[in-house]
Amino acid sequence: MYDDLKPADFEATALMAVEACAKAGTTAERAQLLAEAGLLGVLAPDDCGGLGLSMRFGVPIASAAGKGLLAYPLIETMVLARALAGVAPDMATALCEGSVIASIAWAGFGDDGVVGRAPLAHEAAQVLVFLADGRAVLVATDDQVSVDAAPEFDLDVPEATLRLSAPPQGIVLSAALVATLKAEAQFLRTAVVLGSVSACLGLASDYAQDRVQFGKLLSANQALRHRMSRDAVVAETLRSGLARALTAPREGAGMARDALWCWAAQAGPSVAESAIQVLGGMGFTWDVPLHRHLRRMRALAHQGAARERLDEIADAVLGSTDNEWYGDIADAR
Amino acid sequence: MTPTAPADAFTPGAYAARARAWLHDNLTDALRTDRALSEPASLAERVAFEAEMHKAGLAGITWPKAYGGHGLTLREHLEANREIGRAPVPNSVNSIGKELAGPIIMAVGTPAQQAEYLPEILNMQTIWCQGFSEPGAGSDLAALRTKAEATADGWRVNGQKIWTSGASKSQRCLLLARTGSVQDRHRGLVMFAVPMDSPGVSVREIRSIDGARSFCEVFFSDVIVDEANMLGTPDEGWAAATRVLSIERATNRMYRPWRFQSELEHLVAVCRSDKAAYAVLKSHARELAEIRTEIELLKGHVETLVDSLLAGEEIGPRGSFPKFFWSEAHQRFTRLAFDIVSRFAPGVDGPLRDVQARMQEAYLSSRAETIYAGTTEIQLDIIANRILHLKKVA
Ligand SMILES: Cc1cc2nc3c(=O)[nH]c(=O)nc-3n(C[C@H](O)[C@H](O)[C@H](O)COP(=O)(O)OP(=O)(O)OC[C@H]3O[C@@H](n4cnc5c(N)ncnc54)[C@H](O)[C@@H]3O)c2cc1C
Question: What is the ipTM score, two decimals?
Fold first, then answer.
């Protein structure tokens, strides 16, 4: 039915919707705008009100959200709607329609009673909580949980901490569904970072081509030109890395995705830092949104456990190789 | 060497498996780049190996069959190069011929030149060198002074080239010279395929920081070059060549990310064979993971450009992205690897000594990677000027 759709078509739609969301007063209004544009259910099957499209279509949407600092738990909604489709279709439908706002507590396990890093959870009716055994439970944020706004680092999608008064109860997602959901979120986070990186680079290059010091444009100075070129390399690396990770054959897909995410989590914030430097004192002001992008990307890095993923990559690197040229060297550890 | 099926019997997907199997059967210990042998393969052995590689479908993959190529696409080229990268295969002694001169000749050469030069590149009868840089013209190539004057006997060439890789082993030089004066800059540049045994050509090797004697000075003193050896016409030839150069920057030695990964796998496998070495390795776990992620992203750069080229897109200045990225990433890797192997216990031998020698060499030789094929600063200039279009004046 959607054979003629292209991922790029979604980019323009998403940018428009994200712009409209910036003017909307409440999270509920944003949910409506995003749902009307068909963005929340892009990954969910059509019998739940979704579009049943692949991650290639999710990426430009997430990237637009990053660019426009969308104040909505978009990543969470997109991956939850898909994961819930086969388990709780009504809930999946409600997420796609924007009538229920949901989040995911990316840090901690429900078994311990406290979970955290749940974007906009103080506005969410449902929050997915991971369990130590790999499964997850979608809990209603009513009587069984209290939500503390964590110190607000990310200003646009602030994180919350949840305290559970009882073992989490609700719709259960299997460990396999949870693993897929986490993998999908990794792609979408990388795409959000790419959006923020493009926005920061755009702000820096606009400013540098406008402000004059020493009688010439800032952008006439090679030091700044090269700084911005390096930042452009980051953007291009994320773009090409996403293209590759989305099409990597199964055996290399996990490494392609995780390596990309680990790299994005470090390189993305560095572009925001770089842009702050290009803008000088202006870059350090509250009103210029560079710090918002910086905060957003730093928060995402932790939601996506980039450090932990990097440690896993280290384990893989230190492990035995499947390269037969080096397989015959005796292992003596 | 084992007999091989003609390359056109390969189908995509099977290409990689065939390449892998062939390398297994034909890459001898002497040819392997991961062994600190006192007697590495001779030039003649390397030339013979490369000629066989071509016959087996591991080189000249995208070249038309009429020129001795295999008439396939960059897709098969990529598949084969993943395998070449994965194995300790020596770098080509004729990469200038295969990845620079060849494509330029295909773009601007006459049918007679194509028939004469191209098959001999793939069968390794003619090794090429690139005579572009001069003492006064490095990054600023358009400042080159080597002069070509039209005479009754052909073109008379006078001047000097420098950093000419492999010149002392080459039969032909892809020479860039000018017909007018230095003030003409890009105008009046002309390219020739000069036989290195022409009277008046002399070569002096320059020793590089890794101890090798690969790059050279090449002097041209009243060298007469036949009109038939001019590639394209003055001006046109250069314009076409720069287009080719941008593609080459993006696609040459396509195996790099897989080679870097295999260097890393070599280092790890050897360290795993020794408790003390493994302890050193482990202390750098995080940095190693960062290197591994960069290798993965480099694959993204390479494969994305291959996709663009296959889709018929112009890649223009985008070749600067992978060039910048791979050269800096590899330097970070070799610096780390050097530190790790330098902490091995004194007097190690066997595989530990092999990897130590390889990484010491890689550390030094990788210093050139941010210099040749356009320095890092030049790549960043290209990105600023031609991709970001950053203004210099309001
Ligand atoms: C191992 C090796 C092999 C080579 N093989 C060949 C070959 O086969 N054929 C051939 O023709 N050439 C070859 N070269 C030459 C190579 O292309 C040049 O070295 C390169 O283009 C740089 O020129 P240069 O050495 O004159 O340095 P320069 O251009 O003098 O540069 C010196 C430094 O100044 C910087 N710089 C220069 N201009 C600018 C600018 N506008 N802005 C900021 N910084 C700048 C450079 O980045 C560099 O750091 C080889 C070089 C090496 C190292």
Answer: 0.95
